[in-house]
Specification:
By secondary structure, this protein is mainly α. It contains five helices and two strands; from the N terminus they run ααββααα. The protein folds into two domains: 72 residues, Orthogonal Bundle (Multidrug-efflux Transporter Regulator, Chain: A, Domain 2); 54 residues. A hairpin with a 5-residue loop joins β1 and β2. α3 runs antiparallel to α4.
């Protein structure tokens, strides 16, 4: 059968079938015309690959099991054991995601609390301004600085540039 017929029978796209061939998972014969020729046994392999992918096995894991599947040496117990291992991996991922979810929910609550605090302070400032009070503390007058000693020049602040000389 050609790739389009295999695709139709298995529900796997022709693009995916070509990808599997490129990875070495499938090895179809070639006709004289260059078209790929898939056997009925390859249809079973594609179904095995598709089902394995649908439950989360990587193509690398599938490639490791495919020779035993082709040879009829992949036992029921081995398949069940592999799926139980996959269930344990999924459970670990679920636990990680639940922990991450709790952290996100906690962060959302913290952000809401920060917003409430900000809004409350803003309301206090507005109320104080409406009551005639300044919403900020008053500035106290600075103490007068001591005058320079007689005969000495007062120190110039560092940010003041000296005056320019006139050009002739």
């Amino acid at each position: 059968m050609q790739i389009s017929e295999l695709s139709q029978r298995t529900g796997v796209s022709a693009h995916a079938l070509r990808h599997y061939e490129k990875l070495g998972l499938l090895q179809p014969e070639r006709r004289a015309s260059g078209y790929r020729e898939y056997t009925d046994a390859m249809r079973r392999e594609v179904v095995f690959i598709a089902m394995s992918r649908s439950i989360g096995f990587s193509l690398k894991d599938i490639a490791a099991q495919l020779p035993a599947y082709r040879a009829g040496r992949l036992t029921f117990e081995q398949m069940v054991e592999a799926m139980q291992t996959r269930v344990a991996e999924i459970d670990g991922q679920i636990d990680k995601l639940k922990t991450q979810r709790r952290a996100v929910v906690s962060h959302i609550a913290w952000m809401h609390e920060q917003q409430r605090t900000y809004e409350a302070k803003k309301a206090q400032r507005l109320a104080a301004a409406q009551n005639g009070k300044a919403p900020w503390p008053s500035v106290k007058a600075r103490a007068a600085t001591a005058s320079p000693a007689p005969g000495s020049k007062p120190a110039r602040p560092a940010f003041v540039t000296p005056p320019r000389k006139a050009r002739p």
